[in-house]
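Encode chain A's predicted structure.
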Amino acid sequence: MSAAKHHGLWVAEHGDGLHVGLRGHGRAYSHPDCSCVVHWSDPDDAERSAFGVPSVRVVLRQILRCQGLEGFFVALESALRRRMLAKTDLDWLRKGTNAGARAAIAFARSDADSGLESLLRWRLRRCGLRVRTQQSITSVGRVDFVIGERLIVEVDGAPNHDSESHRHKDLVRDANAAAWGFVTLRFDYALVVHDWDTVELAILGLVDRGLHLA
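Encoded structure for chain A:
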């Protein structure tokens, strides 16, 4: 996923070795002690020199094939946030992918501040919840998500959230939210990426008790 990172796209960590892009008429040579993953380009990917970095739309299609729909969606929202995709690029992706990807494109937004936000919204879509993003709350400020009317969900991906000063600011925000009748759940990178079951159970547990309603 080096090309995606080169473009500044958010991609989840994957420990499955080096990924190498080859043009359709290229050749792959076996070599010892290497478990690289080869990505073959389609004819309509031929929009760069042999040693150039593939375009964002080509990278997204390769992510779809390699990492699946979830990885594609997260990288797609990252590209939309950075305004790296024109309408022609989205049309190209709709035409050159599949029904799942087209649904992901329709669901995608351009206001996700991080890949964690995209990941959480994508995984919650199947729960049928009303999820609003980047909402402004009185005495709190902008929050990542509001589910229903009263449940705030924050995802803290930046390392500076671990600092004492930032932790204090988060506690103040949560206390102010409680004063206005909101309940706040806060998750970090490790929980969202590696322990999603706990995140989902925490959210649905409060929803089942009706704490997300006014």
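The chain has two domains: 2-107, 115-208.
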